[in-house]
Design a protein that fits this description.
This protein is mainly α. The chain contains 15 helices and two strands. It folds into two domains: 106 residues, no CATH class; 319 residues, no CATH class. Helix 7 runs antiparallel to helix 8, helix 11 runs antiparallel to helix 12 and helix 11 crosses helix 15. The chain starts with a helix and ends with a helix.
């Protein structure tokens, strides 16, 4: 174990990593058996509302309070040892009464308790991914109908496939939003403080933006793409890397700026992510460019118009969110800008998307294929700002510690695939005519 802990992160074997995990779990279990992790008892009169284990709280309490604490805890433990449900309930109720009497200042409200219990029982984010995935083929089929039967025209709500896809997609959004509201109530704060919560919020923004722009375009493509991307991001949030536990805020995040800055900046990631999948669809459509295929051409132009609006709005949110972050930084750290890795990459991302947006104002680059290729490749900058800085670089905004892990190989493969698709679309556009 000592050798595993001394080994640099990059050189740890799988066996060593599992040993470290086992050691951490055993220590937690051992502390639980000794009662050290069950901090159920408030320290009477403590201005910081400290809760401790029964033995630790007894050392800081009067004799009467100590007897009350020990009596409730002993009854609870006796019930567990003897498997006596009545004693367990009696001890639990006695402990709950103690908490209400001496620790009411930090007890969660009944509404927060109900919200957390509903959240744990319902698992809305996991279940929302199912209708999101189901909506994708339905809406994609409706888009195919639009291209094949309506020459790329708008779909009517009387179209059964389209209406069913939209209803399933809207149902997923409602469930997603309901789960997010439950987490907000349960935590008593905006759920934006860690990687899991920000991914859930980004996915929600993508879904809402996709639904709004689908109502504007009504061809099934935007909602279908956003439903697919939303389900993927929710799937990423469910990975073991991200801890879904509701934990207290670190002091620097205990500010109203958490809602203002983080909401705007993460919303921008949602819009830019939606712009990326829309640009991918445009590039794929360019692969089918051929003389006489006016339907494909009109589909590209329609998608490009919506894509431009999403791209510009995402850039606006990103810029405003970065400026607001500077104001928060001045309040927290006494300076507006310090070239922290997160700040630097946020600026890089703004400049990258600003360059892509300027394609629209250059005659040689003002083409759907160039704007789509730029937007598609620019999402890698967002990935670096969101994931790379947090886990591969050390700074005030990052979660990195010790030696940075190696970049997964699939990242290089994905970037290579993006470059190949962009090159193939541009080449197809140059080699063929409508």
């Amino acid at each position: 174990m000592e050798r595993a802990h001394r080994t640099p992160d990059k050189e740890k074997t799988k066996v060593q990593k599992k040993l470290i995990s086992l050691d951490e779990r055993f220590n937690l279990f051992h502390m639980a058996v000794r009662g050290l992790t069950l901090r159920l008892f408030p320290v009477v009169g403590d201005e910081n509302h400290t809760w401790l284990s029964v033995s630790e709280a007894a050392q800081k309490s009067s004799a009467d309070v100590t007897d009350e604490y020990n009596g409730a805890y002993d009854t609870f433990l006796r019930g567990l040892r003897e498997q006596d449900s009545g004693a367990i309930l009696e001890g639990a109720r006695a402990i709950a009464a103690i908490q209400r009497e001496y620790g009411a200042g930090v007890l969660p409200s009944p509404m927060a308790l109900r919200a957390e219990m509903t959240l744990n029982a319902l698992q809305p984010f996991t279940w929302a991914s199912v209708p999101y995935l189901l909506a994708f083929p339905l809406l994609l089929g409706a888009y195919g109908w639009s291209l094949g039967r309506l020459k790329g025209g708008k779909l009517s709500f009387r179209n059964g496939l389209y209406s069913l896809g939209l209803l399933v997609f809207l149902g997923a959004i409602v469930l997603h939003l309901y789960g997010y509201a439950l987490r907000w109530i349960a935590s008593g704060r905006a759920p934006l403080s860690n990687g899991y919560e920000s991914l859930v919020f980004i996915a929600l923004m993508i879904a809402i933006a996709g639904f709004i722009y689908e109502l504007k375009g009504r061809r099934g493509s935007v909602a279908g793409l956003s439903s697919l991307l939303t389900s993927v991001i929710l799937g990423v949030a469910m990975l073991p890397t991200f801890d879904p536990a509701i934990s207290p805020l670190v002091p620097v995040l205990a500010s109203y700026w958490l809602i203002i800055h983080v909401t705007v900046i993460t919303a921008s990631y949602g819009f830019l992510g939606l712009a990326a999948v829309m640009s991918m669809a445009i590039l794929i459509l360019y692969l089918f460019k051929k003389k006489g295929r006016r339907t494909i051409q009109m589909a590209i132009l329609d998608m490009n118009a919506l894509h431009w609006n999403v791209l510009v709005l995402g850039l606006a949110f990103l810029s405003i969110g970065t400026f607001l972050g500077g104001v928060w930084a001045n309040e927290s750290w006494g300076r507006y800008w310090g070239w922290d890795p997160k700040e630097t990459w946020a600026l890089v991302t703004i400049l990258v998307y600003a360059a892509v947006a300027h394609f629209h104002f250059q005659k040689t680059l003002d083409s759907p294929v160039y704007i789509a290729a730029g937007s598609f490749l620019a999402i890698t900058s967002v990935g670096m700002t969101y994931f790379g800085v947090n886990y591969f670089l050390s700074g005030l905004h990052s979660y990195a510690s010790g030696d940075a892990p190696d970049v997964p190989r699939w990242v290089f493969g994905m970037v290579a695939a993006m470059l190949i698709l962009s090159w193939a679309a541009v080449r197809s556009d140059h080699a063929k005519k409508w």
